[in-house]
Amino acid sequence: MNETYTLEVLAEITGIETTTLIQYQEHGIIRPAFDDETVRRLRRAEHLRESCEMNLDGLKLLTHLMEEVEQLREELRRHQRPQ
After folding, report:
1. How buried is residue 63: exposed, middle or buried, by Cβ count under 10 Å (0-12/13-18/19+)?
2. What pLDDT does residue 1 have?
3. Do 24 and 30 meet the contact criterion of CB atoms below 8 Å apart?
4. What domains can be seen in the chain, in order of their start residue?
5. Nearest-5° Cα angle at 20, 48 to 54
6. What's the confidence (pLDDT) of residue 81?
7. Is 40 helix (H, G, I), strand (E, B) or coil?
């Protein structure tokens, strides 16, 4: 089961300030339902922000593209499984 978190708990888990989390949410980088998937997305976004010095618009674009790639990979895996 995927656990949900409050904004404060999410900030504690990820080490990201609540104001930054709110900005990420306002820009569509994370969704309002704070769960384990959100933690994963935040860690990826923070890595990109720090290593590539990306702004919020760039983070939004890149995280959405990476999600699409993951969805396509999962779809491909489902089609490749023996029937």
Report:
1. buried
2. 53
3. yes
4. 7-80 (1.10.1660.10)
5. 25
6. 78
7. helix
Confidence of residue 5 (pLDDT cuts 50, 70, 90): very high
Identify the band that residue 39 occupies on the pLDDT scale cut at 50, 70 and 90. Answer: very high
List Cβ neighbours of 72 (8 Å cut-off, separation of 6 or more).
Answer: none
Residue 75 confidence class, pLDDT cut points 50, 70, 90:
very high
Q: What count of other Cβ atoms lies within 10 Å of the Cβ of residue 14?
A: 20
